[in-house]
Amino acid sequence: MLFLVAALLLMGVVLGTVAHAPLTFSVAAGAVIAVWLGVFALRELRGRDRGTSAH
């Protein structure tokens, strides 16, 4: 329960920051995060295919 409260508080801080940032910065940051998550997902899938961890 405490984790959920902390996550919601952090989300509120991040969303508040994005609301005051310029649109181009928000879009660029979102694109960087999307690429990072895509790379992470690909590494995890490749590691799972080999039967080993992707470390």
Detailed description of the structure:
With 55 residues, the protein is mostly helical. The protein is built from 2 helices and no strands. The chain has helices spanning 2-20, 23-50. The model has no long low-confidence stretch (mean pLDDT 86).
The run of helices and strands is HH
Number of helices: 2
Q: What gap, in angstroms, lies between the N and C termini?
A: 31 Å
Q: Which stretches of 5+ consecutive residues score pLDDT under 50?
A: none
Q: What portion of residues is helical?
A: over 70%
Q: What is the 3D shape?
A: flat
Q: Which structural class is indicated by helix and strand composition?
A: mainly alpha
Radius of gyration, whole Å: 16 Å
Count of beta strands: 0
Task: Report on the biggest sheet.
Answer: none
Layout of helices and strands:
Blueprint: H1 2-20, H2 23-50
Concise synopsis of the structure shown:
The protein is an all-alpha fold.
Defining key terms:
55 residues, mainly alpha, 85% helix, flat
